[in-house]
Amino acid sequence: MSIWDRFRLDGRRLFITGGSRGLGREMALAIAEAGADVTLVGRDPESLQATADDIRQFGRAADTIIGDIGQPREAEQICRDALADHGPFDILINNVGGRRINIPTEELPLEEWATIIDLNLTSTFICTKVIGGEMLGRESGGRVINNASISGMIASRGIGGRSYETAKAAVIALTRSTAADWAPHGVTVNAICPGGFMTEPNQRWARDNPDVIEKFEAAIPAGKFGEPEDLGPLAVYLASDASRYMTGAALVIDGGYTLW
Fold first, then answer.
1. For residue 72, which of 142, 11, 130 has the smallest C-alpha distance?
2. CATH for 4-254?
3. Which residues are catalytic?
4. What are the domain boundaries of the chain?
C-alpha cells in the first residue's frame, strides 16, 4: 500500500459539529477532499449550505442538519436522528465550542457557567456517546476527534470566562479516558488543541479586546496566528488509517505559543 493510500478516506462518512464555519469548515473540506462523505451540523442555514456546496465540488455527498449542539437535549436528538437518516459514521469530529464570555470567575453567574460547559464539554460527551458509541459494535472501528484547545492546558492571559479553560481541560480528560476504554474495539479517540486562529469568534475578540489579541500574537514564536486551513491536514491524519496506532493524544497546533 502506498503511503498516500493510508490517508485516503474513500467510502467513509464524517459527522462534524460546527462544520460550516472556521476550523470546522476547513476540517470538513479536507476530509471530503480525502474521499469521505460528510454530515454537517450547525445553527446557520446559509453557511451550512455554502459549505455543503463546496464539499460536493469534490464529488462527495454532503448532508446538513440545522440545530444547536450546545443544548444537551437537542444535541442527543440530533445525533440519534443523524444515525438513523445518514449513518453509520466512521469519523466523528466534535468541533462545536467557544468562550463567548469575558466575565471574571468571582462575578460569573451559574447559568453562564453551565452554558459554556454544555457548549464545549457536554456536547462532546453526547456526540461521543451516541455517534462514537455506535462505532463500538462494528468490525471496522472508527475515529473520534475532539477539538479541544491550548486553553485546556494553560490559562489564557488577560481575559475572563474560565469556564472555557475548565471545559477544554475536561475535553482532554474525556479524550484520554474514552480512548483507553475504546481502544480494544478499534475506535481511536484523539484531541486537537489549537492555539490562536483568526476565526470569526476571534475576529470579534480582536475588535472588542485588541490589546489581548495583540499581546497573544506577539507571544507566538512563529510570529503570527494560524490559518484555519492549517487544521485540515491534521484532521485527515487523525481520521485516516495513517493514525491507527495513535489514541488518547492531545496534539498541540499553536505556532509554539505554549513553548514559553
1. 130
2. 3.40.50.720
3. 164
4. 4-254
